[in-house]
Task: structure prediction
Amino acid sequence: MRKSSLLLALVFLVLILVQPVAASDPTGAETLQANPNAPVNFSWVLICGFLVMSMQLGFAMLETGLTRAKNAANIMMKNLMDFCAGSLAYWAVGFALMMGTAEGITAMLIGTNGFFLWGSAYDVSTIEMWFWQMVFCATAATIVSGVMAERTKFSTYVVASVIISALIYPIYGHWMWGGGWLAQSDFMKSLGGGYGALDFAGSGVVHAVGGFISMAGALLVGPRIGKYNADGTPNAIPGHSVTLFMLGVFILWFGWFGFNPGSTLAATDLRISVIAANTTLAAAAGACVAMAITWLKNKKPDVGMTGNGVIAGLVAITAPCAWVNPAIAVLIGAMAGLIVYVGVWFVDNILHIDDPVGGISIHGFNGIWGLLALGLFADGTYGGVTGLFYGNPGFFLCQVIDSVVVFLWAFGAGLIMFYVLKKVMGLRVTKEEEIQGLDLGEHGMVAYPNFVQTELYGGGIPSGDAPPYAKPVVAAPQIKKEG
Result:
């Protein structure tokens, strides 16, 4: 029976995929004839897309470094599979919902054409856009991995990645980048002075979406064992490799030069120099402010918070990077460094949500700050877009509306998704698997087989106390001899 069902499913898939070709320009000849600059612009977008894909490695390194060695293989596997499963989901469904070309109210609310890149979507320009948006979608999906690390079931995580890539990211993305209501409705354009809400490279579409979905998931899965004391005070649970963490920070920073300048979608748009400079300055300012705060408070500069300050500055500048000047980019990054520090404290101590990597503060809170900063500081030198401080309060209101919508959509959809998955599949590994480590419990292996893995007594370091002695929690798996 199972073999028959599998065969029927395979036949059905083949019938779906083998469709008559009704392509627009699958060879690119017509596109090249219409636009002699097409080759350089195509090359620019694709190379920048390759850089954005490299950010997947950056997230994997950062998350692995900030979590314990017993979960390293699990983190790497999740970062691999959210890209693999998510890219297929975005190809099959997500791209059509996000960038569909239907007419009327359907196009404003949700796109419809382009499933499986069929028919007219079999076109060099359309597929270029699919690839570009696919790597952005993967970035949003992978944020969830770090925030829910060290206690989430692998199977449930893969299903969640498919849903995020097929539905949650594309629908909000359509509202902003696919001709949907946030950017293109008459009300929003009238309010904004000729344009609706804007987000150049994804502070909201990518980072706030990923951050607030993660927040919902972390809330429902609960904190790691040992994270909170009986009185609710949090313990620090140190990651196993500052080296991997900082490697991830540098890879992400480098990849962001594809993320932001690439969003011009044209190498012939010379604003790319300003965007690259703004990206650098905001990241540097975020790091310096985060470092300064920890240095003043703890008498020593904190490595983890400084690295997170870099990523916070990058997230915040992602929406306004094309529309502000370099001095304002420094201000935006500096505020991001403050927001990530306060945000981590708030999530840990007030909300009591366990976030091993600070992703809610980095991507969620600073994603919102990036949207609002655009509404405040756009100076009119690029595309005529002006913000509140340049005489356009209506556009700032558009950005406020967008900020509220992205939180309600991402957090609300995340709550529904993870609640259903919790009831249907289960969200959390067993207590024994969590203590043993997800590498063995979920994958039957360990990332570091030649080392005895250790963990601090009690699971964490109480604030202000010296680190307690370490104890072994996982040994290399025993190999049974045959005979």
